[in-house]
Write a structure and sequence with these properties.
The structure holds 2 protein chains of 2 kinds. By secondary structure, chain A is mainly beta. Chain A has 4 helices and 95 strands. Chain B is mainly β. In chain B, the strands form 2 sheets. In chain B, strands 1, 2, 3, 5, 7, 8 and 12 form a 7-stranded mixed beta sheet that branches. In chain B, strands 4, 6, 9, 10, 11 and 13 form a 6-stranded antiparallel beta sheet that branches. In chain B, strand 9 and strand 10 form a beta hairpin. The chains are: A mainly beta, B mainly beta.
Chain lengths: 1074, 173
């Protein structure tokens, strides 16, 4: 028994110990930065982890110590034909190197300051409080084998030498390797991966960090072979090379001499054996006294330079593919991928790093003596100073450039010399006609497009080039990138979302999250309120969630990732109706929701699987009890389109007979239209009006089936309307008119419920209950306001709870200046009339233009008639009585006009702006209505109302009336004792002419029609109608009678007075024979 | 410009039972113009028509001619009622608007609905009944308007006439 208890106790203790170790290691929160177990401690392993160096059994490097072992063995072995594989991330230094104004070292979220002279880092930049020492590494010696990084990372590489890089020379293959957070510093030069690549294949490599140099110059050699020479006496060799722009050059000729004598090169005596001699640049002279043979000739030239490159400093006869530089590169000459390139092809590679040099190149500094191709390459990094987006120098080369582009604001290519370029499908952000700087002998050939014009070039993004710092973990689901198309996941229990670091050692400045109900585009991500992430995110409440995460690194670069759509339902069954951005998931009293013909979706979920989803479209609200009985449901297919003013009811049932009901709001598909917008009541709308004008318009719902019950309607203005603004609203549906006068301290929003019904004695206010179908005619009249000058924007609104519908805005301006209208009315004579001949058979046509040049529209003139006002004015400027000019006829548009009782002839015009209108004035030989003195026909343009003149133009057309004959010297009166006469009835004329022995001819006219309006008379033979012979009569009484059989009609006797042979007057009298 | 001439037309209808009289007054002359029914005549000449001279009316003028028709109950009492019509004829030489109103301002006829004849225009009321048992006087107003719009020269110096006739007969039961 005791033994059993003891054993049980041991088991319990062991279990406790086991659990206490296991649990803490399960979930690693992003911000938990305990010490990194696998940071290099400086030790050197005694061997590789495993492997024999063959392709099937490569040497395995699994940690930093084994990598250090590799470094040591490279000093003796170049691993030619051998294989090496890295199986873990190599953490040489776990802190982040940040080269800002000071060199910082950020470890465990604490920023330290690194003294690069001592490699120690301190708490502050005074280097007082020592904290630790950086693990410094060395540039690996020549490697000619095959290294597969297996997509692992060498993190925290810190090298400081004269010429620094991960490798000094590579003559083999390097692939699938990420160099991150490197700090590589060289006195003269530096590179991320290697200083030299000769006949190598570099593939799938990313370099990130800082590649720096002090900028001290170094010797750089280029060597060319020269064919063997046989010289008998003298030879001059010309070497045509164009050199990169740098400082001094040294040219060296080397080789072997066979012969009996020495020779000279540029005057220098050289023994005939192996030799090496400095020569003049470009050409040098060889002289001999007897035949010599020169073999193994090489022509070397070197120059001082200081150059750094993100990946490879010098690439010869190599292949570079899928290579990305993200590192900052800094030196006198700095480039993103390769420094000096010779016979090396680059494809699917790009630079994103900042390149900082006296001369910067996005991809390559110099291509020399090459036949190479650059394909699918681009630069998106920032360059400084005298830069070329892709390549700064192309010398003595044949280069194909295709599918490439540069987005930095500079030329894509720099100096081109003695080279042949074939360029196609390549783009530059800056269209640059001079992007190629020519020297002699350069040819450029373009295919398919113009010179590097930036367009929407496709972005190549290598799959593994993604900054991934964090994964989102939910049970067995992991998300590690941003995606727009999300899948749908549902859960019926509380959830906990955790963010987990992808790589512990990666320094993160901040992690944030946001829970969204809907998908967010990349653009949206900048505009949301992110929350700091500290603890796992719990989801307990039913709903739909998409978790978005933002990670900021110490370069202030943000990366985003998100989950799929997670639906959490704690009930057995759930459903929702979705339209636009609204989601309904329960049964409720429907409110109003204005939509524009959108489709409606129904989603439903259940633990027991959904059996059926049904819906109905209703225009009335239901209770649940209504829905449970006697309803014709429609099976839901994919979506529902509704017409208008409908509520959607949904019934969902699962396989466990759980049923839920839910409904939407009242969907109303309508909008307000503003129609018939006028100035005044019926003038074409002009937004610039006098302050006392008015506007009118109709507001109606575009859908006449819609009724907006219970909505509060109002008129809203951007500025409070002036006091005494009179607003009239005609409810065209209910045939009622309401009005309102704006008062002091009015609001910008005037509710229609403030309006009173017009024309009723008791005060009846407008009620929102009256109107179901909105159709209003609205007049806003400013006639009674004080002078003002202001702009207004008004619109109509209906609102109920949170739903509102507004019309378009009507904008107008009230202007304070009122015209002197008389001065704005104009009439001008555009004919060449000199005078009107009076008392003479004449026709005068007056041609005129009229205009009204108002500054602003004044609607108060709307109801006035546009009128020509014609008067006869005497020499004293008095208006002449119309009786004195009865023979003047005024004809306009075929209609004859006569003066009214105010002695003015008013002729209405259609509008105020007329060009080339005509007024015809006819005169006849008629002395009735004699004119005395000098008279003028005066025509003005006016605005009248009921023939009362309200306004008339200041100017006028004035035409003298010339009396042709002085007929007004003759008096000629006619009278009769009867005017209603029977046939055979005797009646008398009494003639009184002021001439002695006048000759008076008598003519008879008979009325054409028995019609009051038609007063046309036709001349008849007087002797057929009158018994007496009265063709001529004399002064005094003359008795006359009609014949028995004369037709009952109206007759006109016309008497013509002659003075001798001169016609001096006419008179007439009408009688009726009944 | 409204001229008002008060005319009372006295009409005397001689029938076996009763009579209807009208009287017409001019501003200068009072005339008793009794009318006699066609079927009844007591041998006295009765004038039942009146002429109105419409010379030189001005455009815009409105003239009213008021008259009455009454039944004279004399020593010869009758036990029958009388029915009568007012008939207007005009030459239609002038563009006039002519309307007849009774005392209750009911429109009895309108020239716009007149019948055109070879003599001009004819307007006639419906039958009007006048009882026998009590003394009755029916007042009428004839309105003649020369519209203002006819202000042209051609409408000056026009002349026309109106002839009013009262025709009466025994009402047959």
């Amino acid at each position: 028994m005791k033994n059993k208890k003891f054993i049980l106790f041991i088991i319990l203790v062991c279990s406790f110990l086991f659990i206490s170790v296991l649990i803490p290691s399960l979930a690693k929160l992003v911000t938990s930065k305990t010490s990194i177990n696998n940071e290099w401690n400086g030790s050197i392993a005694s061997s590789f982890n495993s492997g024999s160096g063959t392709i099937d059994s490569p040497y395995i490097i699994s940690n930093a110590s084994e990598f250090a072992y590799f470094k040591e063995t490279l000093k003796k072995d170049d691993y030619k034909n051998k294989y090496i594989k890295i199986t873990n991330d190599i953490i040489l230094n776990s802190g982040l190197f940040k080269d800002d104004e000071k060199l910082e070292y950020i470890k465990d979220d604490v920023t330290y300051y690194l003294d690069s002279n001592s490699d120690k880092y301190y708490e502050d930049n005074s280097f007082d409080n020592y904290v630790g020492t950086i693990n410094e590494f060395e540039t690996l010696k020549t490697f000619n084998g095959t290294l597969d990084g297996d997509n692992h990372t060498i993190y925290g590489l810190y090298i400081k030498e004269d010429n620094s890089s991960l490798f000094e020379n590579i003559g083999g293959n390097i692939s699938n390797l990420i160099i991150e957070n490197a700090y590589i510093y060289g006195e003269y030069s530096s590179a991320g991966l290697t200083l030299n690549s000769n006949e190598s294949i570099i593939k799938n490599v990313i370099v990130d960090g800082n590649i720096l140099s002090n900028g001290n110059e170094t010797q750089y050699m280029i060597s060319n072979n020269i064919d063997d020479l046989v010289i008998d006496d003298e030879a001059t060799l010309n070497i045509n090379v164009n050199l990169p722009d740098t400082s001094d050059y040294k040219f060296l000729l080397s080789g072997t001499c066979t012969g009996d004598t020495s020779f000279t090169v540029d005057g220098k005596v050289i023994p005939c054996k192996d030799f090496e001699v400095n020569v003049n640049p470009f050409n040098f002279n060889i002289q001999t006294n007897s035949r010599i043979y020169l073999t193994n000739l090489k022509y070397n030239y070197s120059y001082d330079t200081s150059i750094s490159a993100g990946v490879i400093l010098k690439a010869n006869d190599s292949s570079v593919e899928n290579v990305v530089n993200r590192a900052n590169v800094k030196n006198k000459l700095a480039s993103g991928i390769v420094g000096i390139l010779k016979n090396t092809n680059i494809s699917k590679s790009y630079n994103l790093g900042n390149i900082n040099g006296n001369k910067s190149s996005g991809l390559v500094d110099t291509i020399i003596s090459s036949n190479s191709s650059l394909n699918y390459i681009y630069n998106e990094g920032n360059l400084t100073n005298n830069s070329a987006g892709l390549v700064s120098n192309i010398i003595d080369s044949n280069i194909d450039i295709s599918n490439s582009y540069n987005t930095y604001n500079t030329s894509a290519l720099g100096n081109i010399d003695n080279s042949y370029l074939s360029i196609n499908n390549s783009y530059n952000k800056v269209p640059d006609d001079d992007f190629l700087t020519y020297n002699n002998n350069s040819i450029r050939v373009l295919f398919d497009n113009d010179d590097f014009i930036y367009d929407e070039a496709p972005l190549i993004k290598l799959d593994y080039d993604n900054l991934k710092y964090v994964n989102i973990v939910l049970n067995d689901k992991v998300w590690n990138s941003y995606k727009e198309d999300v899948d749908f996941l549902s859960y019926d229990e509380n959830l906990s979302l955790i963010l987990v670091s992808t790589k512990e050692y990666k320094a993160i400045k901040g992690v944030y999250y946001y829970l969204s109900e809907d998908e967010l585009s990349k653009e949206n991500l900048d505009n949301i309120n992110w929350n700091d992430y500290n603890t796992p995110i719990s989801l307990k409440k039913r709903g739909t969630y998409i978790l978005y995460v933002k990670v900021i690194n110490y370069n202030d670069e943000a990366t985003y990732l998100n989950t799929d759509r997670i639906y959490l339902y704690v009930d057995d069954i759930y459903a929702s109706i979705k339209v636009d951005d609204k989601t309904y998931d329960d049964l409720h009293n429907p409110d109003y929701c204005f939509i524009n013909n959108k489709k409606i979706e129904i989603n439903a979920y259940s633990k027991n699987d959904i059996k059926s989803i049904k819906y109905l479209v209703s225009d009335i609200a239901f209770e649940q009890s209504d829905l449970e009985v006697n309803i014709s449901w429609i099976t839901y297919q994919e979506s529902i389109s509704i017409k208008n003013d409908s509520i959607i009811y949904v019934k969902v049932e699962d396989n466990n007979s759980n049923i839920i009901y839910l409904n939407s709001d009242h969907f109303i598909d309508t909008k307000y239209n503003i129609t018939n917008l006028k100035s005044g009541n019926d003038l074409k709308f002009n937004s610039n009006m006098t302050y006392n004008s008015s506007i009118s318009f109709n507001v109606l719902l575009d859908n006449s089936d819609v009724t907006l019950n219970g909505f509060e309607r109002s008129i809203i203005s951007n500025e409070v309307l002036p006091i005494n603004t009179h607003i009239v609203i005609n409810d065209l549906t209910n045939n009622k008119i309401y009005e309102y006068f704006v008062k002091e301290n009015e609001e910008k929003e005037i509710l229609l419920s403030k309006f009173n019904e017009a024309g009723v004695t008791s005060e009846i206010n407008y009620s929102n209950e009256y109107t179901n179908k909105d159709k209003f005619h609205i007049i806003i009249d400013f006639k009674n306001i004080e002078e003002t000058e202001k702009e207004y924007n008004i619109f109509f609104k209906a609102k109920r709870v949170s739903e509102e519908l507004t019309s378009d805005t009507i904008s107008f301006k009230l202007n304070s200046s009122l015209d002197d209208i008389n001065s704005k009315l104009n009439i001008i004579n555009v004919g060449n009339n000199i005078s009107i001949n009076y008392n003479y058979l004449s026709t005068t046509i007056i041609k005129f233009n009229t205009s009204f040049n108002s500054t602003y529209l004044n609607t108060n003139l709307e109801d006035l008639d546009k009128t020509l006002i014609i008067e006869v004015i005497d020499k004293d400027n008095n208006i002449v009585n119309k009786d004195k000019y009865k023979s003047l006829k005024f004809i306009y548009n075929g209609v004859s006009y006569s003066p009214n009782n105010t002695n003015k002839t008013l002729i209405k015009l259609d509008n105020l702006n007329n060009i080339g209108e005509t007024l015809t004035i006819k005169t006849s030989e008629d002395i009735s209505g004699l004119l005395d003195g000098d008279n003028t026909l005066k025509i003005t343009l006016g605005l009248t109302f009921n023939n009362l003149i309200k306004y008339r133009s200041n100017n006028s057309i004035n035409i003298p009336i010339v009396i042709n004959k002085r007929a007004n010297n003759y008096g000629f009166g006619i009278s009769t004792n009867k005017r209603i006469i029977s046939a055979n009835d005797l009646f008398k004329f009494n003639i009184n002419a002021s001439i002695d022995n006048p000759t008076i001819e008598v003519s008879l006219y008979k009325k054409k029609e028995r019609n009051g309006t038609n007063q046309e008379y036709t001349k008849v033979n007087i002797s057929d109608y009158i018994n007496e012979s009265i063709n001529t009569i004399s002064n005094g009484e003359t008795q006359v009678s009609f014949k028995d059989d004369v037709e009952k009609n109206s007759y006109m006797f016309e008497f013509t007075l002659y003075d001798g042979d001169t016609l001096v007057g006419k008179n007439s009298i009408k009688v009726v024979v009944r | 410009m409204k001229k008002k001439i008060l005319i009372i037309i006295v009409m005397f209808m001689l029938i076996s039972i009763t009579g209807i009289t009208y009287s017409l007054y001019t501003n200068m002359i009072k005339k008793d113009i009794p009318i006699s029914l066609a079927s009844f005549s007591v041998g006295v000449e009765k004038k039942t028509t009146l002429d109105i001279d419409l010379s030189d009316l001005e455009p815009g003028s409105v003239n009213h001619y008021d008259f009455s028709i009454l039944n004279n109950i004399n020593e010869n009492m009758s036990d029958v009622s009388i029915v009568y019509n007012i008939i207007l004829k005009t030459g239609n030489y002038m563009p006039l608007d002519i309307k007849l109103y009774d005392s209750s301002e009911n429109l009895l006829f309108d020239s716009s609905n007149g019948a055109k004849t070879e003599d001009g225009l004819l307007l006639k009321t419906d039958d009007i009944i006048m009882p026998y048992s009590e003394s009755v006087k029916n007042d009428y107003s004839l309105e003649v308007v020369f519209p203002e719009e006819y202000s042209g020269e051609e409408y000056s110096g026009l002349v026309d006439y109106i002839n009013l006739t009262i025709e009466a007969s025994q009402k047959i039961k």
